[in-house]
TrEMBL record:
<dbReference type="InterPro" id="IPR006110">
    <property type="entry name" value="Pol_omega/Rpo6/RPB6"/>
</dbReference>
<keyword id="KW-0548">Nucleotidyltransferase</keyword>
<keyword id="KW-0808">Transferase</keyword>
<keyword id="KW-0240">DNA-directed RNA polymerase</keyword>
<dbReference type="GO" id="GO:0000428">
    <property type="term" value="C:DNA-directed RNA polymerase complex"/>
</dbReference>
<dbReference type="Pfam" id="PF01192">
    <property type="entry name" value="RNA_pol_Rpb6"/>
</dbReference>
<comment type="similarity">
    <text>Belongs to the RNA polymerase subunit omega family.</text>
</comment>
<dbReference type="GO" id="GO:0003899">
    <property type="term" value="F:DNA-directed RNA polymerase activity"/>
</dbReference>
<dbReference type="InterPro" id="IPR003716">
    <property type="entry name" value="DNA-dir_RNA_pol_omega"/>
</dbReference>
<dbReference type="InterPro" id="IPR036161">
    <property type="entry name" value="RPB6/omega-like_sf"/>
</dbReference>
<keyword id="KW-0804">Transcription</keyword>
<comment type="function">
    <text>Promotes RNA polymerase assembly. Latches the N- and C-terminal regions of the beta' subunit thereby facilitating its interaction with the beta and alpha subunits.</text>
</comment>
<comment type="subunit">
    <text>The RNAP catalytic core consists of 2 alpha, 1 beta, 1 beta' and 1 omega subunit. When a sigma factor is associated with the core the holoenzyme is formed, which can initiate transcription.</text>
</comment>
<protein>
    <recommendedName>
        <fullName>DNA-directed RNA polymerase subunit omega</fullName>
        <ecNumber>2.7.7.6</ecNumber>
    </recommendedName>
</protein>
Amino acid sequence: MILEPSIDSLQRKIRSKYTLVTLSARRARQMLETNQVFAENSKSHKFVGKALEEVLQDKLYVKEDSK
């Protein structure tokens, strides 16, 4: 079974696996409430998968703190 998008491609966008999981879970709950999906041509049927596709398409990202 091949998972799409791959963890390697996602970690090029967001390095921390913890941040990636937290961000995608939070976005999935938001999609459940609003039914708004920003990913174009989404292949996933589940909200977490759609959130991960948004990360890959640069529609969902983490704003880095500038120190």
